[in-house]
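G., the chain you wanted modeled:
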Amino acid sequence: MGYLDAEAVQKVLSVMLNEVKHPFFRTNKWILQSLRSFRMTFSLFWDNLDLHYGFIPAGRRNSGPVVILTFRSSERIVPQYVHMDKKPSWRLQMKTSGNTVLITGGGTGIGFCIAEEFVRSGNEVIICGRREEKLREAKAKLPQIHTKQCDVSNAKDREALFNWVTANFKGINILVNNAGVQRMIDFKKGVAELARHEDEVDINLTATIQLSAYFIPAFMQRKESAIVNVSSGLAFIPLAIMPVYCATKAALHSFSISLRHQLKDTPVKVFEVIPPTVDTELDKGTRAQRNMTYRGIPPSEVATATMKALADDEFECAVGQAQGLMDASRSNFAEQFGRMNH
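Predicted structure as tokens:
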């Protein structure tokens, strides 16, 4: 297989960005597209190596040069976004088999479907959940999985889960923070209304933050590892009748961005999966109270999208209508918020 070291790549990229009139590009007009286009793309080929260069203009998300090296005979290497005065840094794309995966809230819904996908792809999978009967049902459906009863809203349970997993599964390298609850809360009723419900902050947010803190030091010793946070389209435009749930998911989105930045030069990748309405028991029947007939997409669609995101290094994966909420939050937030909360 052809080999190109980082210094040689740097020289090629410098030519691409700073010397567009280089003879190579003048004589290969099919490679050079308009400098005014949204993306400029150049391609060079060395044996089994494809090198692609693109540029996203300022003002757009992730603006700047984009570089991808693809080894056609093996695996893709994806540099970070590169400025030409800096040396490219390389990261292997996440493999989706041969991992050891912990999924919180894995007994039902999205969590269980993600467990199914990981097992199908040849991974060792551990799920945890509060309800022992749901874990038994999951084990009966998917005998390959390992189960652990755990209430992630409880600090002692979180610590015990970490100790048990690391003692019994030395190769653990993926954490899927999926556990969550969703409640309608009317703050006009005061503190008593909060006391009627499980603590959404502890389950949806605190558990994710603390479990990430427990596992990251170990994950940094792996060749590759990942944190996968399951948030929601409601992180971007909230439903006012579920204020705490939406706030925790917005915080989870922010946390994922910051964590990804902190870990950018480590083997730990941070993914955020952003589902729309999904047909699960998350809301404990509140959809019926709101006279909602649409149950949402099947959780298997979210699981499939999650695996594809891991394979493609798609660090923010908005599924279905959640993409529309993300886009609307940046273009016409007030209008969309009013439509959802009339």
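The two ends are 60 Å apart (CA to CA).

Shout if anything looks off.
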